[in-house]
Specification:
This protein is of the alpha/beta class. About 45% of the residues lie in helices and about 15% in strands. The protein has a 6-stranded parallel β-sheet, with helices on both faces. α8 crosses α9. The longest helix has 17 residues, at about 45-65. The protein binds D-glutamic acid.
Length: about 270
């Protein structure tokens, strides 16, 4: 039995979709979630900058005494997972590998599409990971820079989102993919919009579901689970404004977000209160 919390981090509130699945799968575990809202978004940034942010946050979560770190951000996983795994003493689980595995298993025609941020697409990590499972799978990648701001915007289910999803779905449909990796924390929020754009014959793979499974298995195999009869608690930390985090966080966690604490990281310029 291990009472230490699970550390989870993201560039902002998007990783709360991953936390949601973790809370459903592992309701007895405690968690500390850190959103780097002051430096959001990571998607348009160069990979080495995102990697340095991830290393800083990983070290901070280790100071909080976590037993495992979940990189609940596709861009940060794509940019920095191997470096984080080398730098931290605790196991680190990213969101790409579980999705790549699920996609390689699901595809029947061995044509897989990827929708993600510019950083994630530029890293080419999904291709490498899918090919580690099946080198014969063709991966067709499309960056979707419009989606994150729309999903965080005032009308996530509005016309503009539908139109932006259709735009990025078109080249993948044309390429005849039968499986699509939704490689960004924000996409589960508009799952029905993707389902309508791609239709029933295309399998959609989301990182939140796949990662929760991987974390549960990692805790079990290492024998570091908490007592199953208890109910876990969550602490929320942000480098940005705690009230904004709580407000936007509800949309992504789909549960109330309470008691958000502001944290300072060395690399983040202090914000006006
Ligand atoms: N969390 C990021 C990701 O999954 C999306 C938001 C951002 O660009 O920071 O790639």
């Amino acid at each position: 039995m291990d009472g230490r919390p699970i550390g989870v981090f993201d560039s902002g509130v998007g990783g709360l979709t991953v936390l949601h699945e973790l809370l459903v799968t592992l309701p007895h575990e405690d968690a500390v979630y850190l959103g780097d809202n002051a430096r959001l978004p990571y998607g348009p940034r160069p990979l080495d900058e995102v990697r340095s942010f991830a290393l800083e946050i990983g070290a901070r979560l280790e100071e909080e005494g976590v037993k495992l770190v979940v990189v609940a951000c596709n861009s940060a996983t794509a940019a920095g997972l191997p470096d984080l795994q080398r730098a931290l003493r605790v196991p680190v689980v990213g969101v790409l590998q579980p999705e790549a595995h699920a996609a390689a298993l699901a595809t029947r025609n061995r044509r897989v599409g990827l929708l993600a941020t510019e950083a994630t697409v530029a890293s080419r990590r999904y291709e490498e990971l899918v090919h580690a499972y099946d080198a014969g799978v063709e991966v067709i990648s499309v960056p979707a820079p419009r989606l994150v701001p729309l999903i965080e915007g005032p009308d996530p289910f509005g016309e503009e989102t539908t139109e932006a999803v259709r735009e990025v779905a078109a080249p993948l449909k044309e390429a005849g993919v039968d499986t699509v990796i939704l490689g960004c924390t924000h996409y589960p929020i508009v799952r029905p919009v993707f389902q309508r754009a791609f239709g029933r014959s295309v399998t959609l793979v989301f990182s939140a579901d796949e990662t929760a499974r991987e974390v549960a298995e990692t805790l079990a195999r290492k024998g570091i689970e908490n007592d199953e009869s208890r109910e876990g608690a969550v602490r929320f930390l942000t480098t940005g404004d705690p009230d904004d985090f709580a407000e936007m966080g509800k949309r992504f966690l789909q549960l109330p977000v309470r008691h958000v604490e502001r944290v300072t990281l060395a690399g983040v310029a202090p914000q006006a209160a």
